[in-house]
User: What shape does this take?
Amino acid sequence: MYSVFEDLHTARSLADTLQAVADGMVNGLGYKLACVNLVRPDGDLVIASLAGNSATEAQISGRVGSRASWDRRLSMGEAWGDLRFIPHTEGWVLDEDDVPQWYTDGPAPRSEDEWHPSDRLFAPMYTPGVSDGSRGELLGVLSVDQPRNGRRPGPEQYETLQSYAFQAAIAISGARLRGNMQRALVRLEREQQALRASEESFRQSFEYAPSGMAIAEMGGDQHGRILRTNDALCRLLGRPASAMRRYSFSDLVHPEDIATLLRTSAEGGRAELRLGRRDGTYVWVSLRNSVVADAADGPRFLLTHVEDIEERKLRELQLAHRASHDSLTGLPNSAELRSRLSSRLCPHPPTSDEGSIESPATAREGGRGSADHPVAYVPSQHAQEQGLDFHDEPSLHDTFQQHVHTIAPDSEPDDTAKGLAVLFCDLDGFKSINNRFGHNAGDAVLIEVARRLSRQVRDGDTVARLGGDQFVVLANGIGLADAQDLAVRLRGEIIQPFRVDEHAMRVGISIGIEWAHCGMTVDEVLHSADQHMYVAKRSQNTSISGP
Assistant: This one.
């Protein structure tokens, strides 16, 4: 008997344990036929093992009975402790349920204590480990038949069967637990192998990627600090990996691109900016961030992909420069001139008693204005045509609240007011150079004229080539006397001799000055300056418009 209990707890697998349970009832408890019905996850019971009759085992092993039918069986008959005995006098009722069963032949019993072939004895198994002594969940049911002594079990036998069912439940639960643990260990090992393979794949992809890669801290006091870089990024920036760990990208970015970097979101952000090389130069890169986690709840890091876009960016800048600059002189062309002039003008001039609001940018440029005189809101032509008022154009209202009106200085020579001067310049005698020395010489003169004009203006002023031998200078924040002095300097610079291919040649210059102010269109400003230039050409003097 003790060997039977020992066999229950030494079986290695769940299947072996279930078969050991069935065999123990036949070999140790004295029954000719025994069966283990095991509860499945869906609640029904399946015949998991059978011992004592190979033909019966082949016939019903693996068949399923519903939980409802089993609950009905366990509520019938006589309760022998936890056991259920259903005598043959009641057993005919069980023919109506779906529980798989077998039939045995034999003579009718001669006395009441003999076993009838249709008697049934069930030993429920419950999950162990309930601390308060109550039953756990139903684990399965042991079914036995044909006691070898031919008699119904007495108190000693059914206590033994009940104890055996208890030990069987422990053995089956333990086997299940071991099986689950083994499967979990196998799954964990596979996951760890997959993780190691993934980490190795990431390491190789990171280290040998053709473009730059970096891992940086995310969050905390050290947010953005570079933890690891690949060889491609070190080569791109000319910095060793050990030195890169002392920086964050904010330390390496071009000062003008700091705002671009800050606008880039930490997660999934991207930007095009310049990073500093070790030699002090900068390279254009495309910087893209993604977030990686060290574990499910572990720290997160920024994985930054850095792609060299220097050639593409230079081509874009060159194309943009060509679109906005004269191909011969390199000066801003007519379209760029109009754009810069238009950005300073609006179609709504201030009234005489309003003045203008001076922004910090205008103050730096020498503009005039007063916070005591706010800009008046003037509805647009579209708004006037539609009958809209101030509140119907909030976006325009906001725009004009921020706009600083450009105004013309007063006509008095000693007036200290400053404005935007537009100097329209036309070369005198240039056509004869083309006719006498050829267009190559003419082009050389135009290039030198552009250089001389640019040399005489301040940083921030604009010298543009309008076309042919006509140039325009935009000088913001200057007064009447300043504009006249500038025109004198420009004329003095241009009338100096030019030397082209060993030939000395001269050109003159006529300059007309107009003051751009809001309420004028770009065409009106340029046309007016052009008219003043023609007046100057006829008088060989500089013509300056009034207010």
Notes: Residues 367 and 446 are 32 Å apart (CA to CA). The chain has 19 helices and 19 strands. The chain has three domains: 2-179, 212-314, 360-544.
